[in-house]
Design goal:
Rossmann fold, multifunctional enzyme, methionine biosynthesis, purine biosynthesis, binds NADPH dihydro-nicotinamide-adenine-dinucleotide phosphate, three-stranded parallel β-sheet, 2 domains, THF_DH/CycHdrlase_cat_dom, 288 residues
């Protein structure tokens, strides 16, 4: 039997519809338009694509979209000035500094300058700490999207064995925190993990966030497990995930495809986070 395909594209469409409905209500009932500002430094082509599609989708759900572009050789102070301006701008509820920043900049310093309440990427140390201690935080968009798909598929995740492959600050670690928050038993694997195949074979839930094309083969997957593939790898065969989809789909109970799985959910969650930030800033009920 082949796995259920978790359609992230369709799910993301539903999330965006809910966001758009909430935005419309905020405008109608409170005269407030949620605003998202994206800061792009330099001209990295992949970042350009992300920023453009973020802008388009922000407008499509009825929110205000602002874009700030700086040259690749801009001084860090200039980025800090833009961030300070956006922190003070009441029309802006969400600020996203597109990563990676040019090498001469200190990413941690720039992220730390963002008002945590407007930190819709959830990378500010305050939000990391709030998430880690189980308090209300802005949650990083990619892991949030993964969790939404898992919850939608399973309902309750209590007691499930989850293995997260990858321990980055933007995906692996927050993903593990979220799964812990759902009362999963969580293992975080990384490049130094021994016997990764055996570790993965124990898992009811596998989240692969590594950046190595097709590194998780089907025979690592426990029959019936749910596989969330975060990887986006550009290869000669086009975009592929970190999981070997062709073999994994034969064993898993459910699996996200690449493309069309986690990717679309990330931007949808960014929009949802911006509405959440806007509601919190105005003491209004948050979307559920
Ligand atoms: P990073 O490069 O920051 O982290 C990769 C992680 O994988 C590290 O923790 C690393 O371990 C681990 N790793 C590397 N090689 C192995 C190995 N052989 N076995 C086990 N673990 C290994 O990547 P990101 O977390 O930023 O991204 C991961 C993937 O997700 C990428 O393909 C990226 O493009 C994609 N991505 C997709 C998004 C989406 O919207 N769908 C959003 C963000 C990322 P160690 O720490 O020991 O080095």
């Amino acid at each position: 039997m082949t796995a259920t395909i978790i359609d992230g594209k369709a799910f993301a469409g539903r999330v965006r519809e809910k966001v758009a409905a909430h935005v419309a209500r905020l405008k109608e009932e409170h005269g407030i338009t949620p605003g998202l500002a994206v800061v792009l430094v330099g001209d990295d082509p992949a970042s350009e694509v992300y920023v453009r599609s973020k802008g388009k989708m922000t407008k499509a759900v009825g929110m205000l979209s602002l874009e700030y572009r700086l040259q690749a050789d801009a001084a860090q102070d200039e980025v800090m000035r833009v961030v300070a301006e956006l922190n003070a701008n009441p029309e802006v509820h969400g600020i996203l500094v597109q990563l990676p920043l040019p090498r001469h900049m200190d990413e941690a310093e720039v992220l730390a300058a963002i008002d945590p309440a407007k930190d819709v990427d959830g990378f500010h140390i305050s939000n990391v700490g709030l998430l880690g201690t189980g308090q209300r935080a802005m949650v990083p968009c990619t892991p949030l999207g993964c969790l939404m798909m898992l919850r939608d598929h399973h309902g309750d995740l209590t007691g499930m064995d989850a293995v997260v492959i990858g321990r980055s600050n933007i995906v692996g670690k927050p993903m593990a925190q979220l799964l812990l928050g759902e009362s999963c038993t969580v293992t975080i694997a990384h490049s130094r993990t021994r016997n990764l195949a055996d570790v993965v074979r124990r898992a009811d839930i596998v989240v692969a966030a590594v950046g190595r094309p097709k590194m998780v083969p089907g025979d690592w997957i426990k029959p019936g497990a749910t596989v969330i593939d975060v990887g986006i790898n550009r290869t000669e065969d086009g975009l592929v995930g970190d999981v070997d989809f062709a073999s994994a789909v034969e064993v898993a109970g459910a699996i996200t495809p690449v493309p069309g799985g986690v990717g679309p959910m990330t931007i949808a969650c960014l929009l949802a986070n911006t509405v959440t930030a806007c509601c919190r800033a105005n003491d209004l009920a948050e979307p559920d």
